[in-house]
């Protein structure tokens, strides 16, 4: 695909321990088109943040990372090395779950919003950068932006802090914006407001987005396509409307059954009910289908690795069960 901003084929991440090796990502493929918004969904521990961290070169030093192929903005890349780290804060910006990860408690918001732009716009005056920052705060819905520029992070509420972090990410005009559980730390009403801000920005900026969440509702709201991850593998991938209205993989079905209806009015308080059973130990991954031990439709065939099937609507899924 020529107009992809990001292509990753067969991403593996593992951590070698004393006795065994934990395979956290086992052959993940991701493509994000320019201006496209892709959701990454799966239970906690499925490896979503690991994907983001691999992209940003933020994995722990002992992580082993490999890909068959990776390219960003038309350039071949190797992940987890300086090349990818150089993209951070310019071509790729990240919004974390906890806004304080991105904010320094010692400096005013204004100073931080100016400093973040320096690498991107080294020749602009402080005045210009200050003006851009203030305008961006207005854009993300921070009231009284001119005065707030002089305040410190602790003087903001959680929701306002996350808006500041979104402004911070957008000020560098990234080609890719990664939001890792951007609203999980917020309470329900504030969460809905932040989703609204992200949705508005998505329609306005040309940036691509990778939205990571365990909430199908949030993904339905913000994304064009969705990647469903289970235990470090992609089990289903396709346009949001196709995957959510006619899920093929039993795991996607189970996830959706836990959340009432992703197209119903967005209710962020809906949390993932538990699917019976547990995720396989990353150090002892089964030979066959990764979901078999928890799958209601399991049969003998599932002891072998399932094929990746394609349906006409542009969706792929990995399961022995053929589409009805
Ligand atoms: N440094 C590490 N060493 C070993 N395992 C790790 C390390 N970092 C993360 N993991 C494991 O990787 C798995 C996936 O984690 P993560 O990507 O954070 O999942 P998610 O974001 O989907 O909740 C978890 O089982 C976690 O324990
Ligand atoms: Mg995570």
From TrEMBL:
<dbReference type="InterPro" id="IPR017871">
    <property type="entry name" value="ABC_transporter-like_CS"/>
</dbReference>
<dbReference type="InterPro" id="IPR003593">
    <property type="entry name" value="AAA+_ATPase"/>
</dbReference>
<protein>
    <submittedName>
        <fullName>ABC transporter ATP-binding protein</fullName>
    </submittedName>
</protein>
<keyword id="KW-0813">Transport</keyword>
<dbReference type="Pfam" id="PF00005">
    <property type="entry name" value="ABC_tran"/>
</dbReference>
<keyword id="KW-1003">Cell membrane</keyword>
<keyword id="KW-0614">Plasmid</keyword>
<dbReference type="InterPro" id="IPR027417">
    <property type="entry name" value="P-loop_NTPase"/>
</dbReference>
<dbReference type="InterPro" id="IPR050388">
    <property type="entry name" value="ABC_Ni/Peptide_Import"/>
</dbReference>
<dbReference type="InterPro" id="IPR003439">
    <property type="entry name" value="ABC_transporter-like_ATP-bd"/>
</dbReference>
<dbReference type="InterPro" id="IPR013563">
    <property type="entry name" value="Oligopep_ABC_C"/>
</dbReference>
<keyword id="KW-0472">Membrane</keyword>
<dbReference type="Pfam" id="PF08352">
    <property type="entry name" value="oligo_HPY"/>
</dbReference>
<keyword id="KW-0547">Nucleotide-binding</keyword>
<dbReference type="GO" id="GO:0005524">
    <property type="term" value="F:ATP binding"/>
</dbReference>
<keyword id="KW-0067">ATP-binding</keyword>
<comment type="similarity">
    <text>Belongs to the ABC transporter superfamily.</text>
</comment>
<feature type="domain" description="ABC transporter">
    <location>
        <begin position="6"/>
        <end position="256"/>
    </location>
</feature>
């Amino acid at each position: 695909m020529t107009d992809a901003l990001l292509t990753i084929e067969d991403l593996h991440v593992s951590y070698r321990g004393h006795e065994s090796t934990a395979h956290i990502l086992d052959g993940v493929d991701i493509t994000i088109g320019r201006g496209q918004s892709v959701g990454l969904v799966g239970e906690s521990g499925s490896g979503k943040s690991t994907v983001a961290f691999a992209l940003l070169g933020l994995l722990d030093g002992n992580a082993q990372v490999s890909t068959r192929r990776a390219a960003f903005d038309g350039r071949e890349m190797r992940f987890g090395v300086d090349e990818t780290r150089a993209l951070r804060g310019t071509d790729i910006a990240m919004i974390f779950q906890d806004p304080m990860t991105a904010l320094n408690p010692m400096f005013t918001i204004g100073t931080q919003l100016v400093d973040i732009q320096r690498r991107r716009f080294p020749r602009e005056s402080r005045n210009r950068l200050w003006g851009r920052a203030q305008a961006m705060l207005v854009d993300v819905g921070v009231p009284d932006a001119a005065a707030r520029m002089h305040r410190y992070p602790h003087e903001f509420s959680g929701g306002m802090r996350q808006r500041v972090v979104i402004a911070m990410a957008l000020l560098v005009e990234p080609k890719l914006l990664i939001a890792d559980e951007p609203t999980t730390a917020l309470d329900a009403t504030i969460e809905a407001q932040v989703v609204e801000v992200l949705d508005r920005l998505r329609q306005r900026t040309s940036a691509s987005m990778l939205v990571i969440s365990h909430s199908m509702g949030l993904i339905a709201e913000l994304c064009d396509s969705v990647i469903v991850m289970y235990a470090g593998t992609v089990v289903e991938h396709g346009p949001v409307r196709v995957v959510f209205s006619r899920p093929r993989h039993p795991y996607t079905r189970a996830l959706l059954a836990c959340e009432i209806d992703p197209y119903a009015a967005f209710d962020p308080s809906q949390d993932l009910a538990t699917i019976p059973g547990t995720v396989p130990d990353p150090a002892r991954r089964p030979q066959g289908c990764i979901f078999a031990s928890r799958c209601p439709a399991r049969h003998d065939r599932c002891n072998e690795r399932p094929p990746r099937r394609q349906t006409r609507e542009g969706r792929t899924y990995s399961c022995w069960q053929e589409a009805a």
